Backbone:
């Protein structure tokens, strides 16, 4: 059985679901909106998941594609009671499911442990540099003096999330006194701006899907004007596969910049890419469906809990 | 220090080369060379750790501070008791899958979903080869072996034994216990590591680096 977990109206998840249906794969869709009707029971035979009248043994699950949304989004949609007992039930259910996914031998796309690298972008860039990508110089600081010195050295500087929060990358404005005053609140992630063409690469197992994105804004999600499929040069494709593997991921959305002098910069990797935004969405969904159907050991990517050992954090010492 | 100390201006961290990094202890910026060691005692920074931050910003700031600490603790050039992993700033002991793998490797049934039995269960804190808690020798040995298998130096474990074999009932980072003896062991671990590091720096091979 293939287990999908999330919201049926979410395009990325539904496109994989549809691809699985066309392949007549046995699929169990765990609808997050029905969390209050969902139960997990530990029995002598293993863990049993029930959703209303449907029931599966998690021992029969061969692969999982989790795309749950955070609790506040669901509460906002009014699909959950605000009763504390209901909230506790949902929180416990989600924690149990994640715990099961960390331990199961089923293929999980992506396994929670390596997917957590999304919460520390600087570690991703270090892994990418070790794989041969150029990476922008970065600084994490809450010190205005250090930031000004960094900006003097690099010219245009962007500010982005180091922790994987869904915020837009923007250019730093050193004349914005109010924001600079608030800098001391927390060390903040700054990067040298790299001019060039945005390229989004979806890695699915050993397959690559690349799209070049024209945009009017630094963060292309805010001002996309055109997208076209491209073929990556072989060495760049190989680096994409390598960094995905290095991060312990099976599926990833990599954001790259292709500069005028033929340098390829790595910006970040998204372990839960919302590929429905891109023109190659059907191919990516089909590739993920094929991966979910294939036997668990057919793809080389084994989750590693100690991923940091392969990241050289001593460079420059 | 606690998460609010990250709101004192002066923190500087270059993820690609930690030369030039600065930290803030008390009111002042401090060179990292003054650090003998770091003992992380939190899994992440949470919004409730940040009452001084505007409520609408707390979740975002908590996530950014966690990312900063993870990057900083992985690169800081001094002994760190259990460096962070992707899921926890407290290292492998804070990751549920670590303990699933460790219990599987040692053939100990993982019963963490079940209630802890009132009798014949042993709660203990492990720091390296030291175990704190009123436990049997067999339970202590198993706890040390499990902690090692998990790749951690410190942990707080609850192991049950109903007479037919040991079972794992709870596994957490060491700081979830608060056993007074554990603090002494932590300090001595840090001192030992710091001494070894200084020796290494003074040796001809170390000074060439």
Residues:
């Amino acid at each position: 059985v293939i287990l999908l977990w999330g919201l049926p109206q979410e395009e990325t998840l539904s496109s994989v679901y549809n691809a699985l249906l066309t392949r007549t794969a046995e699929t169990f869709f765990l609808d997050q909106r029905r969390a209050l009707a969902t139960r997990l029971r530990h029995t002598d035979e293993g863990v049993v998941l029930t959703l209303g009248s449907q029931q599966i043994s998690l021992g029969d699950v061969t692969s999982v594609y989790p795309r749950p949304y955070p609790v506040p989004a669901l509460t906002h949609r009014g699909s959950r009671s605000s009763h504390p007992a209901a909230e506790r039930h949902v929180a416990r259910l989600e924690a149990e499911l994640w715990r099961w996914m960390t331990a199961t031998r089923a293929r999980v796309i992506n396994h929670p442990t390596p997917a957590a690298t999304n919460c520390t972008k600087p570690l991703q860039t270090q892994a990418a540099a070790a794989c041969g990508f150029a990476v922008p110089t970065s600084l994490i600081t809450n010190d205005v003096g250090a930031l000004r010195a960094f900006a003097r050295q690099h010219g245009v500087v962007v500010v982005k999330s180091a922790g994987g929060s869904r915020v837009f990358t923007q250019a730093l404005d050193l004349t914005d006194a109010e924001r600079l005053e608030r800098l001391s609140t927390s060390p903040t992630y700054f990067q040298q701006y790299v001019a060039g063409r945005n390229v989004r690469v979806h890695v699915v197992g050993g397959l690559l899907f690349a799209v070049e994105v024209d945009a009017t804004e630094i963060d292309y999600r805010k001002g996309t004007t055109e997208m076209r499929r491209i073929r990556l040069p072989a060495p760049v494709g190989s680096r994409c596969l390598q960094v995905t593997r290095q991060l312990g991921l099976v599926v990833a959305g990599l954001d790259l910049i292709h500069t005028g002098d033929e340098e390829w910069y790595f910006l970040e990797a998204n372990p839960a890419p919302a590929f429905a935004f891109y023109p190659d969405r059907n191919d990516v969904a089909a590739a993920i469906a094929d991966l979910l159907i294939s036997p668990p050991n057919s793809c080389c990517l084994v989750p590693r809990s100690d991923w940091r050992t392969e990241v050289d954090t001593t460079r420059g010492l | 220090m606690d998460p609010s100390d990250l709101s004192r201006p002066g923190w500087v961290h270059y993820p690609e080369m930690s030369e030039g990094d600065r930290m803030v202890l008390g009111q002042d910026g401090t060179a990292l060379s003054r650090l003998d060691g770091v003992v992380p005692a939190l899994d992440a920074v949470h919004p409730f750790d940040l009452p001084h931050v505007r409520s609408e910003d707390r979740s975002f700031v908590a996530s950014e501070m966690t990312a900063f600490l993870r990057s900083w603790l992985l690169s800081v050039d001094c002994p760190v008791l259990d460096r962070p992993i992707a899921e926890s700033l407290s290292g492998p002991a804070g990751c549920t899958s670590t303990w699933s793998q460790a219990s599987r490797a040692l053939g100990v049934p993982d019963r963490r979903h079940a209630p802890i039995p009132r009798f014949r269960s042993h709660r203990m804190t492990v720091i390296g080869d030291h175990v704190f808690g009123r436990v049997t020798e067999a339970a202590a040995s198993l706890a040390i072996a499990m902690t090692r298998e998990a790749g951690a130096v410190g942990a707080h474990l609850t192991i049950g034994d109903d007479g037919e074999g040991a079972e794992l009932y709870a596994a957490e980072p060491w700081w979830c216990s608060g056993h007074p003896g554990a603090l002494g062991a932590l300090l001595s671990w840090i001192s030992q590591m710091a001494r070894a590091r200084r020796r290494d720096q003074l040796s001809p091979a170390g000074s060439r680096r």
